[in-house]
Amino acid sequence: MTTPSSGDLSRAIFAGCVTAFLGFGFAASFGVFLTPISTELGWGREVFSLSVALQLLFWGITQPVAGAVADRYGTARVLAAGAVIAALGFLIRGLSDDPFVFVASGVLAGIGTGACSFPIVIIALGKVVPADRRSYIMGLGTAAASAGMFVGAPVSVYLIDLLDWRNAIFVISVSYLAIVPFLTFIAKVSKPTADGEGLSQFRVAVSSAFKDRSYLCLFFGFFVCGFHVAFIQTHLPSYIIDMGVALEVGAWALALIGLFNIAGSFTSGWLGQHASKKYSLSGIYLLRAIVIAAFILAPLTEHSVYLFAAAMGFLWLSTVPLTTGLIAQTQGLTYLSTLAGLVFFSHQVGSFLGAWLGGWIYDTSGSYLFVWWFAVGLSIFAMLIHLPIEEKRSPVAAE
């Protein structure tokens, strides 16, 4: 593959950051809509939660397919299709009064967000930068997504107050279409990496990866990250309201998660270049267990919410550059989008359960307490499962 010029690469990195910012920000902070929508339409929280859960699940289902198409035909086309489909999914969501249609709209929104998600972007950029900059650039793209969450949560609450929740969702729909013009810069540098030998080579790459213990550890460990992220971003604002604190505090909590994750993503990218990736991942999950346990044991106040959001934000998507970097390190670059997409599928299965179980358990028990403690237990599991990873090219990895 021809090495892109520094100018083209810089513009592509900027465009990738814009795509990550717009593609992730509003979707990650959509939980601020749970209480307004459920209250106005008279729905239980499970309706909203199931719609978001399906969005996250179909994001995960779409991710490996989108990754395989990107490996074979290039990334820009995949991102453009995803942006348009996501815009349509959110448009339908904003128009709906029927709980079935609202839930089903999550499928379309999930396919779109899966195809134009920041993992697709950072993997594309990670392929065209030198290996010694890969973790840093992946951290930069993840930080841009986090910046989108920082802006998206308070802007969403502002739009709800100014326009009502339906029109606020229409703004989100339009924001996805704003991604498309930037994709020309990504198209210039992101070229297909898989050859034309087709499905047989794809199958070899996938089967080889699933024979590798390190890949399996990453696959199951990333499930935990998805559970944490989806449960918190979907239910934290409503949990805070239940405890007598204003919705705006929940929105700013999500914003702080996004803000501090910028620092966490850069730190993670730096660690990926200078320290063991697997021990860094294990440390992140151990810290998550401590932070979540401290939050649910301490008295809930506005200050404790902001402190939790800052601490959790630093650990939020810091797993992404390290996980993706380990996939590249153990499996190579040729099918990186595909294999990382499969690991992100595991992440989104966890996301589905985190979003949906939160609503279902709340509606049946009137409390989120069990889910919080379950999240702590999952953190310990993830800390342990990353320790056996071997940080070198797998002998069974496909060429």
Describe the model.
By secondary structure, the protein is mostly helical. The chain has a single domain (6-187, 195-385), classed as Growth Hormone, Chain: A (Up-down Bundle), CATH 1.20.1250.20. 82% of the residues lie in helices and 0% in strands. It has 17 helices and no strands. It has helices at residues 6-28, 34-41, 45-73, 75-95, 99-115, 118-128, 131-163, 165-177, 183-189, 199-209, 213-242, 247-274, 277-297, 302-315, 319-331, 336-365, 369-385. The chain is globular and about 55 Å long.
Number of domains: 1
Report the count of strand segments: 0
Low-confidence stretches: none
CATH class: Mainly Alpha
Q: Mean pLDDT across all residues, rounded?
A: 83
Helix content: over 70%
Outline type: globular
Précis, in short:
By secondary structure, the chain is mainly alpha-helical. The chain has a single domain, classed as MFS general substrate transporter like domains (Growth Hormone, Chain: A, Up-down Bundle). It has helices spanning 6-28, 34-41, 45-73, 75-95, 99-115, 118-128, 131-163, 165-177, 183-189, 199-209, 213-242, 247-274, 277-297, 302-315, 319-331, 336-365, 369-385.
What is the secondary structure topology, with strand pairs?
Blueprint: H1 6-28, H2 34-41, H3 45-73, H4 75-95, H5 99-115, H6 118-128, H7 131-163, H8 165-177, H9 183-189, H10 199-209, H11 213-242, H12 247-274, H13 277-297, H14 302-315, H15 319-331, H16 336-365, H17 369-385
Helix pairs in contact: 1-6, 1-7, 1-9, 2-3, 3-4, 3-5, 3-16, 4-5, 4-8, 4-9, 6-7, 6-16, 7-8, 7-12, 7-15, 11-12, 11-15, 11-16, 11-17, 12-14, 12-15, 13-14, 13-15, 13-17
